[in-house]
Amino acid sequence: EIRTTRNPLFLKLLQNLLISIPPTWLTYFTDDLITLVYEMWNTEQLLDVLGVVSALAAALNNQFAPFLPQCITLLLDCLFSSRSTRPDICLKVLESILALRHISNDYLFLIIPEIIQTASRSLTPEETRIDALDTLRIIIQSCDCQSYSAEIVRCIKSCIQMQGKLREIALQVLYSLQVSLGKKFGLFQNIFNRILDKDENYRSLINVSISTGKFSSFEFINTSEKLRNSAFVSIPQPTDSQIQSIQHKIEREKQQRELYKILINNLKRRRRKVCAVSIAKNHA
Prior knowledge:
Order of helices and strands: HHHHHHHHHHHHHH
Distance between the termini: 53 Å
């Protein structure tokens, strides 16, 4: 029905279904679901399709790995093309990337630079920059990002010059990087010492070591794994009246398709009959 009607409500229903059934059941339908995602990627339902990707990746975890190459490419292309104009799509893309982060370490060299570029770019809407920074924080807290430390530091430095929420989230990225690197953060310490000489949180993390540093050990570090504290389960549940309305619409469309088939068949039969009469007259 999703392919036939392309109704976003069915995509939301699918998204809710993916997070509520056992992952072992999903393995029987994974190929079909991924094919559906590819088919609908460039449609007006992209926002809901991205929600399906997030839910599917979170549910399947490592079993999603065979689809990573093409999926990561689609997500990053979408982030690149949407970051100036569509904060809603960018949020869904970033949520999908986070859902994939535990199985996509081999693709961090593609993912992290694109997120950094989105967060650093002045033409990007502020809410998308904030979401990109928060995504970076979560990735730092759950993946080994040491190889990208210099790029992350440059991103942080440019963002903490701003005011408000953007600076606040940038500081969270900095604190997370300090804990993640431990004493190795000393390489970058001089960059921030003057800027953050009065930031007690920053100064308290200067001597933290990797062996003892845990993100949850510091109350001022945000350790939420959700952007904007969002969760897949927060998707609005369709009402019974909405579902019934769609069912009626589907039935009407089915009837119309059946009538169309009958009409076409009648026209074909009539055409064959006319041809037969014509041939008989010519023979006569």
